[in-house]
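Cross-posted from the bioinformatics board.
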Amino acid sequence: MTNILEIKGVNKTFGGLHALRDVNLEIYEGETHAIIGPNGAGKSTLLNCCIGKLIPDDGSVTFNGNNMIGVDAHDINHAGMVRVFQTPEIFPELSLLENVLIPALAKRDGTFKFNPFGDIFNEKEIREEAMATLAEFGLEGFSEDHAGSMSRGNKRRLELAMGLIQKPKLLLLDEPTAGMARLDTNNTIDLLKTGKMREMTKVIIEHDMHVVFSLADRISVLARGHIIATGSPEEIKNDPKVKEAYLGEGDHE
Amino acid sequence: MDAILIQILNGLDKGAAYALIALGLTLAFGTLGIVNFAHGALFMLGAFCAVTFSKVISFSKQIKDESVTIFDAYKEIPYLEIWWGDFGALIVDFAVPLSIIVAIPVMILVGIIMERGLIKHFYKRTHAEQILVTFGLAIVIQEIIKHFFGANPIPTPAPDIVSGSAAVGALVGLSENLVYPWWRLIYIVFSGLIIFAVFAFLQFTTFGMVVRAGMADRETVGLLGINIQKRFTIVFAIAATVAGLAGVMYSPILPPDYHMGMDFLVLSFVVVVVGGMGSLGGAVAAGFLLGVLQSFASMNEVKSILPGIDQIIIYLVAVVILLVRPRGLMGREGVFED
Amino acid sequence: MKNLFKSNMSIMLVFSAIVLTAPIWLTPLGANYPDLLQKFAIFGLFAVGYNILFGLTGYLSFGHAAFLGVGSYTAVWSLKLLSMNVFLGIILGTIMSGIFALAIGYLSLRRSGIYFSILTLAFAQMAYSLAYSVLTPITNGETGLQIAANDPRYLDSLVGISQQGQGIPSTNFFGVLLKSWDGYFGFYFAAVILILGFYLSLRVFRSPFGLKLRAIKSNQTRMTYTGFNTRPYLLSAFVISGMYAGLAGSLMVAIDPLAGAERMQWTASGEVVLMTILGGVGTLIGPMLGAVVIKYFENIFSALNNSELHQVFNFLPSFLEETMVFIVSPFVGSGWHLTLGALFMLVVIFLPGGMMEGVTKINSFLKRKFGKTDAEESDVSIQQEVQAKAQQGGE
């Protein structure tokens, strides 16, 4: 199996706090990899180090064979690593269709393209693609509505659609079901398991064990900034270290 | 040495005015989260308190001047002097410092009305909208003043006794020629006192503690169940009063006109940014610093090397600071960075 | 609205027709003389351009008057040195302000929010102060830059047009004097440029580029993680709007060959912000509307004086007449700025979306009103049905 993302010896400190210590992680192409761990274990910090929001103190992050440390966030996106945010980060003033058009345009136009004379209403190809993606997430009926007026669940779906339309090589999902009711959570799981989403390489940061064990091919456990175990769901379930560090703390639901 | 000292002194009085205005601006930023473009207008209102007060108490009557015998001459004698003799004349002479007594309640009232009537409704609006509405208010205030007082500067002299200059040089053992107007010295000392009072108030009272906590983390303080609304009003009134008093005392240095507020506002904003948004100490330090810098830039020696530098020095410093150190000299992380 | 005006063609036809017939339909309002009409067109252009920055990206610049000033000075110099043909001056003025906007925008856009506003303000104030002091050889300081009879005008003399010794020459556009047709040529000249400028703005609004700018306004951080380098987008918008300002500035010169530093003061920048806000930030036609309304009322209000006010109110009993004149007089004549400030506040407080929001509100109110009557009608018909059935049952 080929590694699409390799994290080697990454350290990150904030003042006196050692948020990540010597983190090593390999993501295989095609897998769904879950990162779990108690609150404050450094999951979000790790994610932020991958997408260029934070720069690690040392260590390396290699994506598809290219160094990602110090690379601008927008270039990381174009390298094929796309993040879906925990709290929906959408464009509230724009319509749903426009929300999906934006990432589609990013894919087509690159980091910067000066095209003030094109007509957004005549971009047939990209509009059809956007509508199809919305339809995949059951949002085609709201395409002209303002994204800000959507329900939380629909904003989440929109987020996923925005990630998916860029056809990323690796999709980073930050707690895709946080704050969702059980029914919505199950819907999201189904969404991530079916269609185009299924084959996509994904890293999921998640609290909810139900979600993790329904989706993940492999799981890594992060505790106090350190990866204490990586393995298949079965291996993780039976790992005594994990039980002690994580499941023992009663953080599972 | 003398030249440098005199430039520093020259810069300090202007710097003191910047510092006072910037202090109020920062208070309003930090606690209320309001970008107040009408703050300069408050400074101007203070100056016009002094103008109005001295006009009212020197209300006078025409009396025949007995000393002129060749023809009938008349002179204006203030009523106060007619009624109370020398004591009345003294009061008229001390109009500017005395007008502080009037200016304080007036400015508190203006501050309360402004906060209750307008600013309150803009806490949740964007900064752009705050800037725009207070900009509109500033225009309204200055145009009203213009309507009643005209467009020309109104000379408002300091009391006779301090109209001369202090021999600062002799005082510190330097040249006898080194003199500095008394009133400007008074202004510097007065500003020092006000700044000290504001800091002491914030440092040593419970109220001040809450305000400081609010500047550090507005949301949490709101959650503590403290009646933040009332405190906001008081803070705004304090900011208005500080600006007003700065204006009152500045009126003998610069004859007030209706647009002096705008002139000072732009500079004070720059001062606040240079000091670091939300940092009171930074605002004061930057105020004095920029005042002195401006004074040095207007020396002929400097101007001959860099022509026009005196006109733009403050903006130039602001641009450089903003680009190199975006949080200003003493700004904290995360203030106004949305 | 979107569906109604879906095609660019129909919008442009309607817009052009309204602009070009302005001298006719503005006659009842007493605003049909060239001087005012030109102001409408020029400030409309300025506001339409400013809206590309402020309306689309949300970046509030307080320095755009500086670009207007740069455009004006450049155009006057072109008239002095090259040719009295304004074509050249307008092109050069626009390009020069574009260069200035590129430099100032490059630096200012390193910061966002209020820091950006203060940076633009600082740059504009520097330009203003320098124009008054050190740059006097270029700007002619307080007097303002004017053309003179003995200016070289190398290009004109090259092609053999010599106006030496005929007094101060007039501006022309390839031979047609701007002041011909009783001054209406100047208006039509400005109007055509306005229509072109509006068309460009329309294209920008509807382009992918425009959509990206709106997305930056909505959530700039997200744009970065979506794969966009936002700074070149912002800089393009800044330069485009700066060039509109320069174009407006050089048009002013084309019609009246004079440039002064007061054009660059930050209160002048405040005026274009006001026009944009009053009309409706981020709407296509709003800023144009705002510019026309402000310039119209400025013209009417600033010309009024007390005796005219007495005439206006002389239908009232005399004590009421006095009171009204007393109340209104601070707002007119030289007090026009008071009206402007008050208007500014009222719009921001009650109608942050500007006049266009007002139009939308009235529209939806009317719709609701009509919708209600529909519902009432159906209620009535249901009642009738029920009654009819009851009657049938009774029988």
